[in-house]
């Protein structure tokens, strides 16, 4: 099985990669299209040079790695993807061959968290529109939607449901991982992954939605319809 997990930034996506990476039957890959995205957009993201040095910026090369032999001869392959990396010119025909899962999070939480790490606060950068587009592309193939808020509230319950939906055996190792990161972490991990590197499992339940104002509130409001569409069909 090849799982393509489609998410946006600041959305429990790294913790989910660690959960699957802690299974003996899975290889994992971290945001394989990041260098493609940076090379084609020219954006000045943190650690841009390190990302471009660490990954191929040729989408066809990336796709071959995603659809070719699974690393380490593992039975399954978990692929952590950022929806906004799938810009115009990056082929999407390979996506239909994956088991597609969509990890969603309320826009207010995403905007509040993202603002702490990067100044590029736009609807495009947060990936909500692209996530809905990709979902529509594979809607006939029974894609799965899971909400990070629900996972944090009940990690074992929600991960058990996800495994059942994927026809995977439950592995309790998904609930915990060693502190300090994963060998498959992307080159950008030192900037973005501080909290999850200190963790050994999923954080506890989230509190109330953050109180946003000004441009941040407007951005969250603009993203909300796309979130609501997928929320309506979540596990």
TrEMBL record:
Keyword check for Hydrolase: yes
Keywords annotated in UniProt: Amino-acid biosynthesis, Branched-chain amino acid biosynthesis, Hydrolase
Taxonomy, superkingdom: Bacteria
Gene Ontology molecular function: hydrolase activity
Keyword Repeat assigned: no
Classification via SUPFAM superfamilies: P-loop containing nucleoside triphosphate hydrolases
Coiled coil regions in record: none
Family classification: Belongs to the class-IV pyridoxal-phosphate-dependent aminotransferase family.
PANTHER family associated with the record: AMINO-ACID AMINOTRANSFERASE, AMINODEOXYCHORISMATE LYASE
UniProt name for this protein: HAD family hydrolase
Organism: Seohaeicola nanhaiensis
